[in-house]
Amino acid sequence: MLLKLLTAFYSGLLLTAQAETILGVTVFTRHGDRQSKHYSGYGLTALGTQQNFQVGGDYRSIYIASNSSKQILGVSENRVVNSQIFATAPDQSVLLNTATAFLQGLYPPLEGLDPEITSQTLNNGSSYGNPLNGYQYVVLHGKEEDAPDTIWLKGDEGCPVVTKSAKKFQESTEFQEKHKSTRAFYESFWEEIGSVYDYQPSNLTYANAYDIFDLLNVASIHNASSAGNVTEEELFQLRTLADSAEFGLNFNNTDPARSIGGQAFAGGILNQLNQTVSTKGKLKFSLMAGSYDTFLAFFGISNLTSTSPNFFGLPHYAATMSFELFTSENVTAFPSDNNDLRVRFLFRNGSDDGETLRAFPLFGGSEDSLPWTDFVSQMQNISITTSEQWCGICQSDMPFCEAYNSTGSSSPASSQGGSGGGMSNVVAGVIGAMVTLGVVAILVGLAFLFLRRRRTSHIAPATAQPINEKHSGRSDSDSA
Ligand SMILES: *[C@@H]1O[C@H](CO)[C@@H](O)[C@H](O)[C@H]1NC(C)=O
Ligand SMILES: *[C@@H]1O[C@H](CO)[C@@H](O)[C@H](O)[C@H]1NC(C)=O
Ligand SMILES: *[C@@H]1O[C@H](CO)[C@@H](O)[C@H](O)[C@H]1NC(C)=O
Ligand SMILES: *[C@@H]1O[C@H](CO)[C@@H](O)[C@H](O)[C@H]1NC(C)=O
Ligand SMILES: *[C@@H]1O[C@H](CO)[C@@H](O)[C@H](O)[C@H]1NC(C)=O
Ligand SMILES: *[C@@H]1O[C@H](CO)[C@@H](O)[C@H](O)[C@H]1NC(C)=O
Ligand SMILES: *[C@@H]1O[C@H](CO)[C@@H](O)[C@H](O)[C@H]1NC(C)=O
Ligand SMILES: *[C@@H]1O[C@H](CO)[C@@H](O)[C@H](O)[C@H]1NC(C)=O
Ligand SMILES: *[C@@H]1O[C@H](CO)[C@@H](O)[C@H](O)[C@H]1NC(C)=O
Ligand SMILES: *[C@@H]1O[C@H](CO)[C@@H](O)[C@H](O)[C@H]1NC(C)=O
Ligand SMILES: *[C@@H]1O[C@H](CO)[C@@H](O)[C@H](O)[C@H]1NC(C)=O
Ligand SMILES: *[C@@H]1O[C@H](CO)[C@@H](O)[C@H](O)[C@H]1NC(C)=O
């Protein structure tokens, strides 16, 4: 035992003495402070953009700055090189602006960084820098809800199988008991919630746990006339209840369909990191923006919850997950052997100074990093890796899914042979369940979808909100 400890101690020393080299990073971020999402057309607040900007700046000082021990190998420090960066967000204002603010922190205006390279001189002697003190334009890819690539960010939307599984949560005894035991607690907030146009006393239940928390949390920050009406302690209880409701809606150990959003996200992460590997480090930094649903589903399927019970809780505004691709040696070129590559998972719970980016072991392991090859096989086990696979599992009628139907590959069983990294156990589980439920499942799924669509089209014109805000049957699965 003692020998083992000593060995671990010395190998630990060796590892820290040997400088590692970061080769690429993929980051997933939640939006900062925003208006309540109960009201469509909600947006990031000024505080929210500051939070995402702050986090982007902190990532700059970790991964981009030349005085950081974690600077990514070969990354451009001051002038953004767009081939090194990939940034994407769902085509929704809150999440697009989240990514923009983050990128503004990652690559601030050039004048403040390096005035010498800010301007370009023409043949006639005139010099020009970008507007806004040398603002840097990082390309940001917005993903519309009907683009196949949207599934990496929002794999829980447009997926009737997820909606159906989430319904099962409301039927569970766990839910029913909480519903009953918290009834009086929720009813006590009628005075604070009653002014919300579509709330009746009967709506004050655990079934609206997130929405009620969100309304009162946002009011506690922004609404002067309601300040102090909800105590810190009440807000804490409301959040804790929202934690359990949202975790239950996004993960269930025995019902893989619940976490399809997290599985597609895992496929997206794998794909981004693999691009860094397959291009030998040309792609250096990927940014994806998304919702807390995706965080929670991923925390569940990657077994982070066994590492710390904190992963059962909703992540803070502007929380981030970082996946580092690195090699244990101090190198000057991308390693030629993939066996020299490792991956480390890190999480930062918001934008506060006190919150640091911390490493956590994935998949219930004990080490804070694992070899790339192990990472790939473990991730494939929990991932949806192609849009075709997603369409089959979800029984989705998204327009891009039609392409797979014409080749006769839409049936779940035949999507098994689809392209990509083969089918995961999780996927097989979903398919097994679907085959059992058969035609009924498909019909029920279509009915949900039909209702969802009708509600969306009903809401959009009435409120004259931007129609690109995505709505789904689950009030909580809306963006972030
Ligand atoms: C890594 O190697 C370079 C030279 O190749 C050296 O300048 C640098 O100090 C080394 N870094 C560490 C942390 O040992
Ligand atoms: C790196 O340099 C910046 C200013 O250029 C400074 O604010 C920061 O503290 C430095 N970081 C380290 C780790 O030395
Ligand atoms: C130099 O060329 C640019 C582009 O043709 C023009 O806009 C600018 O006015 C010129 N500057 C001078 C001093 O002629
Ligand atoms: C999890 O799924 C199982 C099997 O579908 C179900 O019996 C159980 O009630 C579910 N639990 C929750 C909290 O949804
Ligand atoms: C909030 O509290 C203030 C006084 O503390 C009171 O005047 C006001 O009516 C309360 N508002 C609500 C919605 O309860
Ligand atoms: C409140 O309940 C009514 C009746 O069930 C329902 O139509 C309405 O959508 C609910 N409102 C909210 C905000 O959940
Ligand atoms: C602020 O709170 C008051 C009292 O609860 C409420 O009437 C009002 O609608 C709230 N304003 C906003 C913007 O939510
Ligand atoms: C990584 O990318 C390469 C090249 O595109 C591909 O051949 C390989 O299958 C990918 N691996 C994974 C795990 O996705
Ligand atoms: C993030 O912070 C929230 C609020 O304090 C907490 O409930 C949650 O457990 C935290 N998550 C992690 C992984 O630390
Ligand atoms: C999660 O990790 C714990 C602790 O290592 C382990 O006991 C458990 O079997 C793991 N669960 C899954 C689903 O992998
Ligand atoms: C895949 O994940 C399941 C748990 O979800 C686990 O039991 C199994 O061992 C994993 N398979 C591999 C190859 O890691
Ligand atoms: C694919 O075909 C099935 C069976 O004909 C149908 O139910 C489903 O709606 C189709 N999906 C798409 C996207 O066309």
TrEMBL record:
Q: Which UniProt keywords apply?
A: Membrane, Signal, Transmembrane, Transmembrane helix
- What is a GO molecular function of this protein? phosphatase activity
* Domain of life where this protein originates: Eukaryota
Query: What InterPro entries does its record include?
Result: His_Pase_clade-2, His_PPase_superfam, Histidine_acid_phosphatase
TM region(s), chain numbering: 426-451
A Pfam family name for this chain? Answer: His_Phos_2
By sequence similarity, the record places it as follows:
Belongs to the histidine acid phosphatase family.
CDD domains, sorted:
HP_HAP_like (cd07061)
What is the organism field in this record?
Melanomma pulvis-pyrius CBS 109.77
Protein name as annotated: Phosphoglycerate mutase-like protein
Secretion signal: which residues?
1-19
Q: Which PANTHER family match?
A: ACID PHOSPHATASE-RELATED, PHOSPHOGLYCERATE MUTASE-LIKE PROTEIN
